[in-house]
Amino acid sequence: MSDYQNIRLEIADRIATLSVDRPKALNALNPDTLRELSAAIDAVAKDPAVKVLIVTGGGEKAFVAGADIAAMTAMKPEEAQRFGALGHEVMRKLERLEKPVIAAVNGFALGGGTELALACDIVLASDRAVFGQPEIKLGIIPGFGGTQRLARKCGSFAAKELILGGENIKADRALAIGLASAVIPAVDLMTEARKLAAKLAGYSALSLKAAKQAIDEGLDKPRIEDALQVELQAFAHLFGSEDQKEGMTAFLEKRPPQFKDR
Ligand code: CO8
Which three-class secondary structure state does DSSP give residue 241? Predict the structure, then answer.
């Protein structure tokens, strides 16, 4: 029996699926939900049987419709600071998870929902997905990393269009600005997400982790020389692994590799 009230965590075939599941509020993130997400990400991080994480929304309608507006209405600045910091902590934990994270965006991904997708590595959007940062219409701004990640991942013009304009966008526009990696018919979304996750799960956990870290840590370096050093260290380190020997030997022997994650 799981202790989670607002999320579901299912693990099968080396893939964990984490669903935000608060149908009465279209999966909006309140503090309890964020704390449960944090605990679930820790569990995924520690579980050697899990190689890839899929994040999605419970039900048909929403991925996550934002931070919980009812929970925020009466907040004073200090409480908002704590809530924002909790959101930052959870998104950062997801972003720094040493395993690939696929967002399967199945419906409304607004405010904190777009911010949750932005903290994932690959974003698969259903053709019914709706993204947006509508906080400006509530008299606030994004507070779970949206001002920073949207600008870094999609550029400042796209970030300002969404954050200053406050209008929602459909999946095809999200694809055009680089907020989604692919758009998939709604009925096929989870099948495609699992197919992609299964493909990644067949690779070495060591090279998946190294690739993710090299990209993310390199992007944080202002100088390309320093960023290239990040890649070089990670690249060279893999040559001490059994999986590098196996991957290259299997190629030369014209057979599929059997990675052992070591
Ligand atoms: N918070 C709380 N409840 C919500 C939220 C939300 N974000 N979104 C939907 N709900 C609730 C509705 O209140 C409604 O509840 P009830 O049935 O009790 O009236 C139920 O979910 C169903 O919603 P609707 O009836 O509105 O469904 P519609 O199909 O008509 O509309 C929408 C769907 C378009 C998704 C609409 O619900 C909507 O616009 N939701 C709000 C979207 C939004 O503004 N999100 C951004 C929130 S702010 C944010 O995310 C900031 C993040 C950083 C915070 C940092 C804090 C310091």
Answer: coil
Q: What is the pLDDT of residue 2?
A: 76
Q: Starting from the edge strand earliest in sequence, which strands make up the sheet with 62-64, in order?
A: 62-64, 108-110, 130-132, 169-170
Domain 205-252 = CATH 1.10.3720.10:
no
Q: Where are the domains of the chain?
A: 7-201, 205-252
Catalytic positions, please? 115, 135
Chosen CATH of 7-201 out of 3.40.50.1110, 3.40.50.300, 2.70.98.10, 3.90.226.10: 3.90.226.10
Q: How is residue 198 written in tokens?
A: 């299964």
Pocket of ligand 1, beta carbon within 6 A? 25-26, 28, 65-70, 72, 80, 83-84, 87, 108, 110-112, 134-135, 138, 142-144
From 29, 68, 69, 89, the mutation candidate for ligand 1 (largest count of ligand atoms within 8 A of CB) is 69
Q: Which residues of the chain have pLDDT under 70?
A: 1
* Tokens describing residue 69: 């507006």
